[in-house]
Amino acid sequence: MANSIFISGTQSLSVCNRVSPNGLGFVGSDFNGNQFSKLGLSRTSYKIKTLAPICSISTSRPASQPRFIQHKQEAFWFYRFLSIVYDHVINPGHWTEDMRDDALEPADLNDRNLTVVDVGGGTGFTTLGIVEHVDAKNVTILDQSPHQLAKAKEKEPLKECKIIEGDAEDLPFSTDYADRYVSAGSIEYWPDPQRGIREAYRVLKPGGKACLIGPVHPTFWLSRFFADVWMLFPKEEEYIEWFEKAGFTDVQLKKIGPKWYRGVRRHGLIMGCSVTGVKSTPGDSPLQLGPKAEDVTKPVNPFVFMLRFLLGATAATYYVLVPIYMWVKDQVVPEGEPL
């Protein structure tokens, strides 16, 4: 596990126990972008000041890369239209009831009196799985899209749930509030995933568990292209790193997917893993973060917005076709042979 440190003249530096068997190692860069490293240092060679952990995830998909349905206003309008057909077109190909039950199993929804928040709950499809185990009056559905929430309000089993509009990166719940935090199919639209997971830690009670269900990054080149253009498809190791940096312990990742994919993950999955972690101590997360990645109060250029929206929606169309393609292959390719 690397700790962030600061030495004069550096832009970023990590001290790593695993770099060299002979001791510590430094890996970093200066402000001119020059890379440097020093391996096999004695643990007493340098006086090092350890700082509070900050959000600096290494990723092959930098923040500057244009993901066209990533920011909150883009996601708002994307779901303005998608909410009309979400339960009938999107869920059957990407988020089935069997997958939902499988993904929620690690959340330990084992008491009807648990207090549960479903963040990014949308139309309430995931919430329907939650209220099978927890009384609806103890469940709160939060989403930034009133159009998605309108669909949730129509579902009879969710009539007693609290349904509120809100921001996953700035939750309107007090610290140490909930027994369980659930979020399914929402992280891909968060401008700053680490901030949202930090909020999950904050709102949970000590001993509470977070269960976050989201996409996995494709390995097939064409699927990877459309995924990266469309929205955030994290790598599995990124989920674990985000959880651990937020302060969660006992972090576990469970792979999920439609049955007709037969475990194939090279095209990525909109719902591909269920990640859980436990909050062990009361209070806020130990992770310190800077300003939000997105200021939703800033005016948006309507022409740029429309262009980004149309390009993102076009990329999303690819992921409407992928599950159909995989279903056809499942029907054609004999059992036991690779898809």
From TrEMBL:
Segments for region (SAM motif II): 161-174
Domain MPBQ/MBSQ family SAM-binding methyltransferase profile: 67-276
InterPro entries attached to this UniProt entry: Methyltransf_11 (IPR013216), MPBQ/MSBQ_MT (IPR044649), SAM-dependent_MTases_sf (IPR029063), SAM_MPBQ_MSBQ_MT (IPR031164)
Keyword annotations: Membrane, Methyltransferase, S-adenosyl-L-methionine, Transferase, Transmembrane, Transmembrane helix
TM region(s), chain numbering: 305-328
One MF annotation (Gene Ontology) recorded for this entry: 2-methyl-6-phytyl-1,4-benzoquinone methyltransferase activity
Segments for region (SAM motif III): 202-215
Single Gene Ontology BP annotation: methylation
Family from the record: Belongs to the class I-like SAM-binding methyltransferase superfamily. MPBQ/MBSQ MT family.
Protein name: MPBQ/MBSQ family SAM-binding methyltransferase profile domain-containing protein
Organism: Solanum chilense (Tomato)
